[in-house]
Automatic annotation (TrEMBL):
GO MF annotation, one: acyl-CoA hydrolase activity
Start and end residues of each Thioesterase domain: 51-124
Family the entry assigns: Belongs to the thioesterase PaaI family.
Domain of life assignment: Bacteria
Keyword flag Hydrolase: yes
Alphabetized UniProt keyword annotations: Hydrolase
Protein's organism: Aquamicrobium aerolatum DSM 21857
Name of the protein in question: Acyl-CoA thioesterase
Gene3D superfamilies: Hotdog Thioesterase
């Protein structure tokens, strides 16, 4: 099985159970070894009191891309620590895209960077996630 097939099958197994991301209106756009892209369109119910996308939803978008990237090796990985820096607001109608890439994996620990942009390529947020693998696999190889 190729690394791309392992990543795809791991993502399919996770997506089948990922009710939170689906409820948000998110899509899983791409997945590969140590990489993933998720996106959603900012709707009225995603906006806060400033009439911009609530930061928690932007964090969730980035966190989901992070999760699919660090779980792409058919090893169960969970978040250990995440940080986000908001650079610009997501606005009503924006299509926000989170692009994750794993930058380090050592033993059971990993680091993944996620860039959130809008449909014009404007930077909305930068997210860094630390992952930790635990027992289990997404599917039997």
């Amino acid at each position: 099985m190729t690394l791309e097939e392992i990543a795809r099958r791991s993502a399919e197994a996770m997506w089948a159970r990922d009710d939170a991301s689906k409820w948000l209106g998110m899509s899983l756009d791409t997945v590969g070894p140590g990489a993933a892209t998720t996106s959603f369109t900012v709707e009225k119910h995603h906006t806060n009191g400033h009439d911009i996308c609530h930061g928690g939803y932007i964090f969730t978008l980035a966190d989901s891309a992070f999760a699919f990237a660090c779980n792409s090796h058919n090893r169960i990985a969970v978040a250990q620590h995440n940080t986000i820096t908001f650079v610009a607001p997501g606005k009503l109608g924006d299509r926000l895209t989170a692009t994750a890439r794993e930058i380090a994996q050592y033993g059971r620990s990993g680091i993944c960077d996620v860039r959130v942009t809008n449909q014009d390529g404007k930077l909305i947020a930068e997210f860094r996630g630390a992952s930790r693998t635990i027992e289990g696999k997404h599917f039997e190889e």
